[in-house]
Queue: 2 jobs
Job 1
Amino acid sequence: GAGVSQSPRYKVAKRGQDVALRCDPISGHVSLFWYQQALGQGPEFLTYFQNEAQLDKSGLPSDRFFAERPEGSVSTLKIQRTQQEDSAVYLCASRAWASNNYGYTFGSGTRLTVV
Amino acid sequence: AQSVTQLGSHVSVSEGALVLLRCNYSSSVPPYLFWYVQYPNQGLQLLLKYTSAATLVKGINGFEAEFKKSETSFHLTKPSAHMSDAAEYFCAVTPNDYKLSFGAGTTVTVRA
């Protein structure tokens, strides 16, 4: 597609529920990233995929967070047993190649509210 | 770890006035540096990036930034603010080839 598409745009979850957030990157983009942006803060790195391989998951806050990209295109970020502190905007970005000479394209994000 | 500090969480300028957003980075090696803009309820859009090719970097929408190694700074400027420049701006650095480390952001308001 023309841009990075994320769904849903908004998600309200009751504390303890599991949620799944989807990211459709630009077709053919090798690299895919997830970031978490709390209210009034800059985005924080969560995880990085190159094709289907998850090369860095050091930013995932806890073992309740899990990301996958099984076929090297669409990615899903799953949060189990959501907590109020998980409330944030989750941004996905993709990049054509692994080098920083190629820019990121960010999606519009999924705003997760845990009540 | 590499990081960036944005001085001033809010900046208010008059339409037509200079926009100056400050960013300082900590790095032991020359980094890649970026400025992004975020409009309400939207993702981040790249304004410009420094990749060591030139110290003065020109970006979109009339913005530019100058890399000053001696000051470890990468300040963003625009000579004449427009109402459409009202947004949040983030400075970012890469500690490696993929992970962006963002500053806390600066919200710009433009007064008519």
Note: Residues 20 and 30 of chain A are 22 Å apart (CA to CA).
Job 2
Amino acid sequence: GESVGLHLPTLSVQEGDNSIINCAYSNSASDYFIWYKQESGKGPQFIIDIRSNMDKRQGQRVTVLLNKTVKHLSLQIAATQPGDSAVYFCAEDSGGSNYKLTFGKGTLLTVNP
Amino acid sequence: KAGVTQTPRYLIKTRGQQVTLSCSPISGHRSVSWYQQTPGQGLQFLFEYFSETQRNKGNFPGRFSGRQFSNSRSEMNVSTLELGDSALYLCASSLASTKTQYFGPGTRLLVL
């Protein structure tokens, strides 16, 4: 049969704008969350992480917000640059001694110069 | 510090063959995880090894197996290859004390 690819959400922004990428996670027991950036032909690159005992964490040009009440995660990228164009994945770890990440389907970010 | 390395980077096999992929984690990282990435299913967890023991396993058939050596290097094997096994296979490593996983560039496998 014909295979159907995942329909990635897409976000297109102008260079210099701020970007917000959203992610809904599934497991209320998840206690650790990571955002990855994947460029074409490369493996996922770690951006920022957050534990469930926090609701906000900031890095260089990036901020992750965690809302456990509605199981929602967001990644904010300030002053988006063309080099930020990539697929962004959120991932959750279900806690305990697991080292097993469950990934969302990703969001394609395109930055227009 | 060198990142996660994977060999080979590209591989072409035919149905029914088997394949072995290799992963060298970041120095000092003892946990190694494997993931399969396809356009249809996205990123899916295969298994995770720590101190030569498989600690977690995803929902893949027994044709997919792995092992870890005493130096933390890991291999995964896929036997009796099927067309649907064509994918990017990613290895990630992490320290024993954290859950942050760092990925290698992947091995792109094409099954004809």
Note: DSSP finds no helices and ten strands in chain A.
